[in-house]
């Protein structure tokens, strides 16, 4: 047993990269198998819960602007409110989604669609804040994003790269602090800014050594606390700069066959980057459609704009799920597709739909989520939830459950008030059954 | 060349002894009040058996006070001249000179920008940050009182891209609860927003008191300003006539009997479209009929009219001319109407006041001399920003239920700040003149009970101070990068990224200045920038047209060059130990240019460069 403890970190890595038997056996043989008593299954069951938790990741596909449910996963071809959008069949008989999502329809087996999302916030900033943090904005507390809360619970502290990465702007870690701040990538096609050293690696190392020696002076002059924090940060950052994991950010390494699966779009490249990061061990990756030129705020010219959006996002979503599945990563990676609210049932005079938080939809796949099903429904005219309403907090509780995170875990806010990761709501049982 | 602090010690000890018996009944000068502050602090330290740290050396003082007042580093020349200046009152003189500089007004305008905008709940708030900085800079240059500035921020109306005083309200989208929460936090240091939904868990604030504060602001509206089809900006307007359909609907229901009698002209007990065409029911009649005509006879009886439900879930607040406190047991009801009342002074105006009347009377009550938390909150904030430690921590969570360190010192400063007409320069000068501010940093044994204000506390530079410091070190022209308001003009879209290099830098390095300093430790992207940014790397170059090239040419001896580099980057001379480490390093590398580049990189990346010491 004791022999195994130092190996745990390696085991986690092995699982994150999928079931790579060779790497796994190698790790084990270096440790316990050498002692001659443990077989593979014993090793697997050791610390199983901990391993399961630590190996999990989430990818949030953020549909900024508020995607129309009628033009995505809840088409209403037989009602005036459904407009011109037709419904198409999916790989699961009896489930239809909107035209334009043919590739996603083909992976319906993996997806659970929620057609009964409901909320009250109808303004972009407030709803975006709420759908990222689980809290409505309040002037004086910066709530942590769900990404930060999850990273705090399940990320591997020894991982070289940041635990939370966002392709495009997102909410920050709030009072959970810098350790869980999202590392922002503006463009998935290029390496993030400033990760490459400007001098050869050995000279960079020499500089770090000089810096470390010179720091003693300020430490002795009363800056000891500041110096210690700074040393921690610089050791973490230089570890990242010099890490071989850094190449996870470089999507050019991917073969053309894999790239093409995601489609030729910035959003698709963001999804490919998300897969590479999760594979390397990042806990939470958000890919924002808006940051990649995909704005769902379709107040006018609905069909043309949604057509452009789905042309990029459909192959990217389906490609991501397929790729994760092929690599054995989907069972430990939760993929959530959602925006801040839905759109009005009535099409306005400018041929668009306006903000509608009362009914909207989301899709979710991976981890322990049972795919190939639809949760809840909206009324025939789409104006209200017909059954199984799911609130933002219900969805957040479900996400926590899928990732083995306790949604009632409390973190202390700066004012000394404990705040739960998710305050209220309950997991949607059907997602897991 | 070694600097000494002895002359200043004499000066300050002299002040303290002559002023120690001053009783403050009226207005005190900065010198008098500073001496009284020191007397009180020293007495407290003595009671606790704590020996205060000595005064900081000249070079440390100059760096600290320049960063605090002008938001940047002193130049090498400033450091040298100040050290050589034999004048006994040179610290006093430099404080006054810095307070009169343009850099003071600009640096502190950006400080207040961060206070307001880094807590903004409105993501579009950034639109007005440039004009806010310009507006605040002018206020600080003119040394307008904090009471006048606060009044302007509370009563502002107009285009958010033209009038900087709209910033605080725009940052909270003009929503009464959000504005109330921020007003209380920023101007009073009292956190009340928890009381939005329930009585405060441990403070005495009741939910109703929070909503009484919010009731000063329900008539504020934020409206889009369009130019043709293009959204150009937003404006803050007063709305004294309800535009909320829900309000009008409720008013209709309350008066249903009277409206019905008045409208039913043929007295057949049924309203039809032709009867209401020219009265207030007319516009909404089709919708009312569609939902309310239960017997499908094409008209509405009184019973039917009274039974019509509002089509949307009821929402409290928005667009209403009065403030409603939501009924938590029945969120879809409109809630309870609340009249404005200021929880600290008990001031409550008569009901039904216009928006401007509400906001003006509130700011009078807020800034009146009886409103002691208004003064204390500002003093606590400035004191904490300058000394690194507040009387109350976090600085924006004070109030009668919190315990302060040395409350008598805070009160002395707060009363005097108020008697001096909320004169911001007066306050900063007073703080900077205290021995307490001028003490050296020293290590604090983490195990021991710490007594505040016995020594200076090193704190991390704010993003804006760091940017100015880097510019000073690299010799770039600061004036070119001053944050200017966003220019408006044809085709200027609203949503643009950060504009100047300074703005971009502050996105990366900015943090909420109300955050306790201990929580500010920097993050990975910041460290990456300092380590690897090509912008910095281009300047850490001993061969191009850079400061470093010039320095190495002017000082051919390595020892001199090392010392000069320390003065340039850290505003102090190198110690013997540092000189030894650097000299050995140069020998080890065997290439003078390369070694000095490495040394400059190390100094710019040092924790000392990033800190106020």
Descriptive notes:
The complex is a heterodimer of chains A (433) and B (613). Chain A has 433 residues and is α/β, with parallel strands linked by helices. Chain A has helices spanning 8-16, 21-30, 32-35, 40-45, 48-54, 102-106, 124-133, 146-154, 201-242, 256-261, 266-280, 302-326, 392-402; strands at residues 57-62, 87-89, 96-98, 111-117, 164-167, 183-185, 284-288, 333-338, 342-343, 355-356, 360-365, 373-375, 377-378, 385-387, 410-412, 418-420. Chain A folds into three domains: 1-50, no CATH class; 56-191 and 250-431, Alkaline Phosphatase, subunit A; 195-245, no CATH class. In chain A, the strands form five sheets. In chain A, strands 6-5-7-1-8-11-4-12 form an eight-stranded mixed β-sheet, sandwiched between helices. Chain A has a two-stranded antiparallel ribbon with strand order 2-3. Residues 1-34 of chain A have low confidence and may be disordered. In chain B, α2 (30-47) packs antiparallel against α19 (407-419). Helix content of chain B is 50%, strand content 5%. The two termini of chain B are 20 Å apart. Chain B has 613 residues and is mostly helical. Chains A and B meet through α7 and α9 of A and α10, α24, α28 and α29 of B.
């Amino acid at each position: 047993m004791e022999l195994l403890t130092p190996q745990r970190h390696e085991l986690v890595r092995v699982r994150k990269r999928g079931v790579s038997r060779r790497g796994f056996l190698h790790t084990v043989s270096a440790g316990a198998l050498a002692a001659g008593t443990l077989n593979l299954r014993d090793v697997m069951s050791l610390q199983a819960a901990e391993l399961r938790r630590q190996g999990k990741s989430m990818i949030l596909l953020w549909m900024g602007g508020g995607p129309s449910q009628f033009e995505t996963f809840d088409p209403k071809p037989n009602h005036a409110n459904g407009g011109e959008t037709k419904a198409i069949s999916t790989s699961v008989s009896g489930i239809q989604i909107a035209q334009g999502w043919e590739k996603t329809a083909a992976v319906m087996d993996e997806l659970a669609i929620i057609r009964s999302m409901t909320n009250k916030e109808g303004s972009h900033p407030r709803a975006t804040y709420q759908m990222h943090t689980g809290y409505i904005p309040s002037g004086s507390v910066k709530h942590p994003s769900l990404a930060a809360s999850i990273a705090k619970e399940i990320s591997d502290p020894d991982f070289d790269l940041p635990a939370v990465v966002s392709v495009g702007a997102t909410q920050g870690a709030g009072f959970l602090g810098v350790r869980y701040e999202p590392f922002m990538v503006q463009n998935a096609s290029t390496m993030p800014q400033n990760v490459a050293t400007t001098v050869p690696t050995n000279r960079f190392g020499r500089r770090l050594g000089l810096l470390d020696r010179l720091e003693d002076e300020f430490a002795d002059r009363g800056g000891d606390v500041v110096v210690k924090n700074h040393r921690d940060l610089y050791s973490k950052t230089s570890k990242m700069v010099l890490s071989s994991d850094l190449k996870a950010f470089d999507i050019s390494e991917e073969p053309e066959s894999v790239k093409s699966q995601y489609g030729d779009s910035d959003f698709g490249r963001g999804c490919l980057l998300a897969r590479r990061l999760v594979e390397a061990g990042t806990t939470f990756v958000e890919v924002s459609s808006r940051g990649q030129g995909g704005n769902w705020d379709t107040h006018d010219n609905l069909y043309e704009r949604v057509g452009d959006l789905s042309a990029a996002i459909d192959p990217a979503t389906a490609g991501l799920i397929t790729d994760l599945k092929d690599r054995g990563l989907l069972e430990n990676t939760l993929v959530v597709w959602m925006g801040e609210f839905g759109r009005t049932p009535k099409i306005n005079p400018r041929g668009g739909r306006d903000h509608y938080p009362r009914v909207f939809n989301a899709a979710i796949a991976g981890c322990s989520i049972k795919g190939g099903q639809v949760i809840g429904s909206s009324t025939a005219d789409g104006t209200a939830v017909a059954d199984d309403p799911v609130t933002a907090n219900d969805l957040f509780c479900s996400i926590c459950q899928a990732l083995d995170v306790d949604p009632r875990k409390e973190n202390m806010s700066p004012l000394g008030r404990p705040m739960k990761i998710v305050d209220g709501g309950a997991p949607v049982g059907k997602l897991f059954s | 060349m070694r600097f000494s602090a002895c002359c200043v010690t004499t000066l300050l000890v002299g002040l303290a002894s002559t002023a120690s018996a001053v009783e403050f009944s009226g207005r005190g000068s900065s010198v008098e009040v500073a001496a009284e502050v020191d007397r009180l602090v020293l007495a407290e330290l003595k009671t606790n058996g704590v020996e205060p740290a000595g005064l900081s050396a000249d070079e440390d003082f100059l760096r600290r006070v320049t960063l605090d007042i002008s938001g940047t580093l002193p130049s090498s020349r400033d450091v040298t001249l100040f050290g050589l200046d034999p004048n006994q009152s040179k610290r006093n003189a430099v404080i006054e000179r810095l307070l009169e500089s343009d850099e003071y007004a600009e640096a502190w305008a950006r400080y207040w920008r961060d206070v307001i905008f880094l807590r903004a709940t409105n993501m579009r708030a950034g639109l007005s940050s440039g004009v806010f900085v310009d507006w605040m800079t002018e206020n600080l240059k003119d040394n307008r009182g904090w009471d006048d500035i606060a009044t302007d921020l509370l009563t502002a109306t107009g285009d958010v891209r033209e009038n900087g005083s709209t910033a605080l309200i725009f940052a909270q989208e003009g929503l009464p609860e959000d504005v109330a929460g921020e007003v209380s936090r920023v101007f009073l240091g009292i956190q009340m927003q928890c009381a939005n939904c329930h009585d405060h868990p441990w403070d005495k604030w009741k939910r109703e008191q929070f909503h009484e504060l919010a009731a000063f602001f329900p008539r504020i509206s934020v409206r889009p300003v369009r130019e043709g089809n293009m959204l150009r900006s937003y404006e803050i307007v007063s709305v004294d006539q309800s535009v909320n359909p829900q309000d009008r609907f409720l008013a209709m229901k309350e008066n249903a009997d009277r409206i019905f009698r008045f409208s039913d002209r043929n007295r057949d007990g049924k309203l039809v479209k032709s009867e209401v065409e020219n009265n207030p029911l007319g516009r909404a009649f089709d919708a009312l009929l569609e939902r309310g005509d239960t017997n499908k006879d094409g008209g509405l009886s009184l019973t039917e009219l009274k039974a019509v439900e509002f089509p949307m879930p009821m929402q409290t607040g928005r667009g209403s001319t009065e403030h409603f406190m939501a009924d938590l047991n029945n969120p879809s009801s409109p809630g309870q109407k609340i009249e404005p009342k200021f929880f600290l002074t008990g001031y409550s105006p008569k009901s039904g006041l216009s928006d401007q009347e509400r906001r003006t009377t509130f700011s009078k009550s807020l800034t009146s001399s009886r409103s002691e938390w208004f003064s204390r909150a500002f003093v606590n904030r400035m004191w904490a920003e300058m000394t690194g430690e507040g009387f109350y921590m976090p600085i924006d969570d004070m109030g009668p239920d919190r315990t302060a360190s040395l409350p008598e010192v805070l009160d002395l400063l707060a009363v005097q700040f108020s008697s001096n007409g909320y004169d911001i320069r007066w306050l900063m000068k007073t703080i900077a003149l205290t021995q307490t501010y001028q003490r050296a940093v020293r290590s604090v044994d983490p195990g021991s009970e710490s007594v505040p204000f016995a020594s200076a506390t090193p704190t991390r530079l704010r993003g804006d101070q760091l940017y100015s410091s880097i510019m000073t070190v690299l010799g770039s022209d600061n004036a070119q990068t001053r944050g200017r308001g966003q220019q408006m003009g044809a085709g200027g879209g609203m949503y643009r990224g950060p504009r100047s290099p300074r703005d971009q830098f502050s996105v990366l390095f900015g943090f909420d200045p109300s955050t306790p300093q201990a929580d500010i430790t920097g993050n990975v992207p910041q460290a990456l920038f300092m380590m690897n940014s090509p912008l910095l790397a281009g300047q850490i170059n001993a061969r191009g047209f850079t400061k470093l090239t010039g320095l190495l040419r002017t000082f051919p001896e390595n020892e001199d060059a090392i010392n000069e580099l320390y003065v340039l980057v850290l505003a102090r001379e190198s110690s013997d130990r540092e000189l030894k480490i650097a000299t050995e390093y140069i020998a080890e590398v065997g290439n003078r240019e390369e070694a000095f580049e490495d040394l400059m990189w190390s100094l710019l990346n040092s924790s000392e460069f990033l800190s106020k010491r």
